[in-house]
Amino acid sequence: MLRIEDVMAENPMLKFVKIPRLMPQKREASDRAHDFGEIYAEFSEDKAAEQASRCSQCGVPYCQTHCPLHNNIPDWLRLTAEGRLREAYDISQATNTFPEICGRICPQDRLCEGNCVIEQSGHETVTIGSVEKYITDTAWAEGWVQPIKPAATRGESVGIIGAGPGGLAAADMLRRAGVQVTVYDRYDRAGGLLTYGIPGFKLEKDVVMQRVTQLEEGGIEIVTNCNVGVDISFDEIRSKHDAVIIATGVYKSRDLAGPGSGADGIVKAIDYLTASNRHGFGDTVPEFEDGSLNAASKRVVVIGGGDTAMDCVRTAIRQGATSVKCLYRRDKANMPGSLRETQNAEEEGVEFVWLTAPNGFVGNPVTGVNVQKMRLGLPDATGRQSPELIDGADYVEPADLVIKALGFEPEDLPQLWGAEGLEVTRWGTIRADFETGQTRLPGVYAVGDIVRGASLVVWAIRDGRDCAAAILAQFDEARSIAAE
């Protein structure tokens, strides 16, 4: 009779029964709360192989199914366990343009790791994200990541508006096929929210910049400080290229009404995070220097419960805030943000005030937030319990800086760009085919958050890659017709 022990002795995998789950060592909260360095250490080669060997190599890999990019996770876990890291990297980057970024910031607990088969059996998930990060960081260190070198050059040209993850993922695939690619971005550095939205303790900026450099060295032209509709028109971009991809993301902050909402000291999350990241680059940031977008020595209140709110509270801690509180209208179990990030924030000294919602602000400059206490009632259309007000339970939460992290909406691009015929949905997102990104304007495509609404980086990468494949198919079809 075949025993499981015999199978495991011959197999480099299936070690989940004997080897417990292990994450890379996390820096102590008292240490990491004073700087913007990443909080997790790197796996050693032995530990990466050991943790990868816990994979059960199941017949139906739910980790792969639930990854938006459908990464070949079991394959590169096995290769890592066998010490074949170069092959593991080749498999990893075949489906993911930025594995070193996804390994750091993807919410693995909700995607691949959250659907791991051994997790369902009570043995705890494989640490997929940390192994992915280790593989790609090793690839960079060993020089395996090289500039793009197309096998042949094509005559077609594509213009991409937006140098965030969706736009850069599309640029990478198109350039690998030999297409001429120009990326236009309003900011002075490429990367979008990877550069200016996500704090360094989750994604150190040299990780992003090295990837941008690799794309540029491969022949992708990135035009920064270029505001479409001001510095160049949308029609001019269309006239320069055979196809155009809109990958602007969504940057218009949702606002919060109520008495006193226009007071000084009440700021938008994107402005606050951008100022912090610019300061980290060594830029001169007047709003940071004068204290407008700096939490140092202030009582900070962040309103919201998503990942952006977590970025804000943890940034405020590192800037030396006197106190940091996060108001959220539901409870911890119903937060939209990552539970891992919430735990990290709590360890670092953030206080979460559950079941609370703002109802106005006191003072100008702001000195407090009028807070209403809530309770959870019946489920709404999404199945989540709806928050209900508790009469007579209002109070004032003292604050010197209030950060609104309520999510993002799309800008009115047709109006801003004078783009007649560019259709939008009732939510203001660009109307485009979800598989190809094709809009109803000939040769114009759209990808990422500007189509989906605010979503995950990994979905933007998926959209960019799918759109690039669709454009290449259109180019090939046009060539075939021309040749007949």
UniProtKB/TrEMBL annotation:
Protein name: Glutamate synthase [NADPH] small chain GltD
EC number: 1.4.1.13
Residues annotated as domain FAD/NAD(P)-binding: 158-464
InterPro entries registered for this protein in UniProt: DPD_II (IPR028261), FAD/NAD-bd_sf (IPR036188), FAD/NAD-binding_dom (IPR023753), GltD-like (IPR006006), Helical_ferredxn (IPR009051)
GO molecular function ontology, one term from the record: metal ion binding
Keywords: 4Fe-4S, Iron, Iron-sulfur, Metal-binding, Oxidoreductase
Domain Dihydroprymidine dehydrogenase as annotated: residue spans: 32-143
Lineage start: Bacteria, Pseudomonadati, Pseudomonadota, Alphaproteobacteria, Rhodobacterales
